[in-house]
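1st attempt posting a full record on here, be nice pls
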Amino acid sequence: MPNIKKSAAFHVYIIGFLVVLGVAFLSYFEFYDLIENKFLDWRFQLRAPITVSDRITHVDIDDYSIAKIGRWPWPRDKHAGLLGILYEMGAKSVVFDVNFSEEMNQRIIDQKTLETLKNKLLEEAPSQDSPPEEYQKYISSLRQSIRDTFDETEYDTMFSQAIKYAKNIFLAFVFSKDPPEVSNLPPSNFRIQYSEKLHGKIASQMQYFPETPIAVLADNARGQGFVNIEPDNDGVIRHVALLKEYQGYFYPQLAFRAVCEDLGITPEMIKFTPGVKIELIKNEHPEIIIPLNNRSEVIVNWAGNSDKAWNKTFNHVSYGQILENYVIANEDSSRLPEDKINQAKVMLKKIEPLVKDKICLIGSTETASTDLKPTPIEPLVPGVMLHSNIINMVLTNDFIKRLPKLWNLVILAVFGLLITIIAGRLPPVKSAVLTVLIISLSCYAGFLVFSYYGVWVDITGPVLVCFLGFTSIKVYRTIQEEKAKRHVQHIFGHYLAPQVVEQIIKHPEKLKLGGEKRVMSVFFSDIANFTNISSKLSPEVFMEFINQYLSAMTDIIQSHYGMIDKYEGDAIMALFGAPLERDDHAKCACWSALDNIKKLTDLNEHFKKSGLPKLAIRVGINTGEMVVGNMGSQKVRSYTVMGEEVIVASRLEGINKFYQTNILISESTYEQAKNDIEARELDFVQAKGMHRPIRIYEVVGKKGEIDAVTKSLHAKYALGLEAYRAHQWDEAIKILNECRKMINPDDGPTVRILGQCHKLKRLPPGEKIVTVNILTAK
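the predicted structure (as tokens):
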């Protein structure tokens, strides 16, 4: 059995190796990460929503809240009031994703206090007849009452007292590049001391400064956490640091701080291995292991997908609704209708289960918020959603783990070897289909592993290796094929047909530039799938193999008075009716084609015994007026033909592919040879390079050589073709289906015209119907 040429096979494997090496090298650059991140986003968007903890509730500063309470920022007595309500409802902890780094010094006076002051002043006011002493006393009392009413009770102090009363309140701070006016150290009650022995040497970082809440609030809070976010290069938030080093200590991210409190995790129970993992340890065993990337960031396992928006993934209640309903529910029935008060109480009852024993996150979700971030799932998501997703990951112990680089490189090498074998050994169409299939399967496998196991396996690498590997090897094989064709053409181009030699000997005057117009027939044949054949045989075996084929075909062509014009690789161009004129050149060309097909059957049997591949050929023949003569320079000449009729013959050979036929002839050839051949009219076509449409015929035998079944097929097909051209689609479809069912289900022309019938039948009324088959491909 012939094998792929050793040197060519070696080169193919070298190409595959270089492609794998190139993609592996590319995987260390930003361009690769940009593509892979998009593949990650695609997986987030398409997977089923993950499990979400019911212990998380968002208290949203939403559009409704802004409409009811007013423009942000709000007086902090509102926060104090909300904390009191949440505490009453049994909230386990409250996390503020709000910046409280500046003081808010404003005096407090509410409507009820004003009403009380007004009533008091009216009651104590003296009558018009009162003496001056009474008026003086009243004025002194008035001054004292106003002074007492407008006592300097600050919002910050009121909020601080509420924080202290509620206990488990967590506030946010940021690490700023610019030093704030007042810089306080982050709280020391939850931090991990840095140790080079335990944590390794930390690379120098840009100097930054903590911008913490004001002291009056920070002192009473249970804890604080930083809220710095560092998006990827495309601006999307996919990773977040849970611990950040500052002045020899690691401080927690806000959500991480809150969830550790919820789980009873103290700093001593956290084992941090930078660039690897964070372990939350209980009873001396890791209870939760958080995988980290080489920047010590966790991959955010975003809840939801493209069909489930951020506001549907966790519990959400409106900040404004809580305050509004609480005020109404506690209002005097003399001031509000009883049913409205009852409605507010019912609403609070509905809200209470969403707050009781929950981690409540307070943050802005309003439409005009400046705290909107792009995520893998949605282009804009409120920043507070990052905190709920971090808490959810820890509570559900559900993290995304990226496959180590080494294993991704191993997968890359496996795909590289696979695509090298496929692209190097299989025919182009099969290898292209398999390459597309492998790329699709790699994407699907990456999606499944991510969806069911939470493992991020690189898809970019296998896709690039498959695409670049197939393309590179295909280009190499095409070059090798062209070399093989040029080699065959060079060798056989030195031989002339005996008829040409005889013609030159008899008429040496014809050996000159120029030519004459003559009606003759041109014959084109080509081997199907020549690329596959030429690339799989060694040079010696290939040359012997192609020489056997060409010799056999040439002998038959010459026996029918044809002249070999040229060999173009595996293709044969022959002339009938030149240089010697013959009246039966159309018949000779058709019979030559039939005998070529017949001879090829015998050759294939011989090839099979020798372990050589089976051949199939396509033939196109056209008859018409052409220019024929000896053309070239004074030193190098070629006896050949030119003209549009030559192009038609070449196109007829290629049209065989569309009709799954072996021999196609034009109407002009059929008219001259119809008494000597068995043929059927197939269609009316116009191919690329043809300036006019022509009728085409399939040659199936010499006159009288076809059987009754074939005759029946031809007769039935002719009826179907007649109905097709008469635009009787249903009748044509019926007849052509009978051809397939009763005679030959695989008849190519029948299948082709049947498809045209269905296509034209679907055209809307009034649409121009053209039954000329326009073929844009060669």
